[in-house]
Amino acid sequence: MASGATLKIYLVFFVCAIASRSASAQLSGEDYYARSCPRALETIGSVVASAVANESRMGASLLRLLFHDCFVQGCDASILLDDTANFTGEKTAFPNVNSARGFDVIDTIKSKLEKLCPGIVSCADIIVVAAKYSVVALGGPSWRLQLGRRDSTTASLNAANTDLPAPFLNLSALITSFSNKGFTAKEMVALSGAHTIGQARCTTFRGRLYNESDISPPFAASLKTSCPSSGGDNNLSPLDVTTPTFFDNAYFKNLLGQKGLLHSDQQLFSGGSTDALVIDYSFGLGSFRNDFADAMVKMGGLSPLTGSSGQIRTNCRKVN
Ligand code: HEM
Ligand SMILES: *[C@@H]1O[C@H](CO)[C@@H](O)[C@H](O)[C@H]1NC(C)=O
Ligand SMILES: *[C@@H]1O[C@H](CO)[C@@H](O)[C@H](O)[C@H]1NC(C)=O
Ligand SMILES: *[C@@H]1O[C@H](CO)[C@@H](O)[C@H](O)[C@H]1NC(C)=O
Ligand SMILES: *[C@@H]1O[C@H](CO)[C@@H](O)[C@H](O)[C@H]1NC(C)=O
């Protein structure tokens, strides 16, 4: 009897715990704004399409914003908060400073949405939707969106510095960095395929040009003209030397030819445990597209604020 009652109490507690956990952490589907802001997605899609048509790199920049938002206290738009006299955000963190971009495009989207349906669409959801439309605009895969995030009232400079992987990490450190966020090594490799688009500054890959041996000599030589051994820190080179504005699997083919731009890129194909997967992705575009899409949905699910947590910011750059 006593143990039956105890079991019942445990059961009730267990069910409540699960219910409250999912209530605080569960996202809704792509139709989340269907009633409250029916034109939300098409509005985001059209601003992204014209921004990418104007400058194809913007698609890469918007995709990277999602990664840099979601890996730092979850997908809560914390990366968008500006520093003020009494607030320090994430924009000056090492991986973001002079590097993260696309904030003006997010502002354009937000101001259109605030006119259309004030106080409804979160900045965190805007980042997620803009990243998907950016990938699609550059020829990449599509996926079903999960929506219903709310925006943080905080940011973490420290977490941005510690949780975002640096380009000089080796394979085991890259695997650990993603595993800390719940991703497998396979998902880490698929997500790194994002470097099939966009640009990097000389300062992020100089050591690879002048100090590493697993780099194609003609590739290194051509990069050295715009990335000298000192100076030119902000000079840009494409992460995918073959098709920098097209979302394909050329990134993986480049790795096979030792033409990864970043040290961290080439680590995925440098005699370690992920070599076989890189070879697979370099042959079969289809599996990369599927795995990338699945991993993007998973990234969008990192610790969202839902229910009554957080807020819907009016201006993505500041707390209401
Ligand atoms: C695996 C670990 C990763 C490292 C070490 C890394 C590092 C970097 C670095 C150093 C840059 C150049 C930044 C600059 O010079 O300003 C860059 C650019 C970029 N990264 Fe990553 N990244 C990683 C994973 C990812 C993931 C998971 C995504 C998205 C799913 C991503 C998307 C991008 C994009 C699209 C760019 C180009 C941005 C632009 O042109 O504005 N990266 N990354
Ligand atoms: C178009 O792209 C350029 C950079 O290539 C940028 O300076 C300009 O602001 C962009 N214009 C619009 C309307 O987005
Ligand atoms: C500092 O924070 C207070 C709220 O705590 C806010 O009202 C004020 O505007 C902030 N000042 C600046 C310069 O950001
Ligand atoms: C990878 O880097 C970590 C930390 O920087 C280091 O401790 C480890 O020995 C390195 N592993 C290999 C295989 O080089
Ligand atoms: C190359 O490595 C040497 C020795 O570790 C170091 O002193 C030098 O700064 C490195 N050069 C670059 C361009 O990273």
Automatic annotation (TrEMBL):
On cofactor binding, the record's note says:
Binds 2 calcium ions per subunit.
Q: Where is the Plant heme peroxidase family profile domain?
A: 31-320
Site Transition state stabilizer: list residues: R64
What cystine pairs are annotated? C37-C117, C70-C75, C123-C316, C202-C227
- The positions annotated for binding heme b are H195
Q: Name one GO cellular component term.
A: extracellular region
Q: What is its EC number?
A: 1.11.1.7
Query: What is the active site of this protein?
Result: H68 (proton acceptor)
Per the record, the major location class is: secreted
Stored Pfam families: peroxidase
Keyword line: Calcium, Disulfide bond, Glycoprotein, Heme, Hydrogen peroxide, Iron, Metal-binding, Oxidoreductase, Peroxidase, Secreted, Signal
- Main enzyme class: oxidoreductase
List of residues binding Ca(2+) 1? D69, V72, G74, D76, S78, E90
Q: Give residues annotated as binding Ca(2+) 2.
A: T196, D240, T243, D248
What's an example Gene Ontology biological process for this entry? hydrogen peroxide catabolic process
Which regions span the lipid bilayer?
A: none
Q: Which PANTHER family match?
A: PEROXIDASE (PTHR31388:SF247), PEROXIDASE 72-RELATED (PTHR31388)
Q: What does this protein do?
A: Removal of H(2)O(2), oxidation of toxic reductants, biosynthesis and degradation of lignin, suberization, auxin catabolism, response to environmental stresses such as wounding, pathogen attack and oxidative stress. These functions might be dependent on each isozyme/isoform in each plant tissue.
Q: Which family does it belong to?
A: Belongs to the peroxidase family. Classical plant (class III) peroxidase subfamily.
Name under which the protein is recorded: Peroxidase
What is the name of the gene encoding this protein?
Answer: LOC115746925
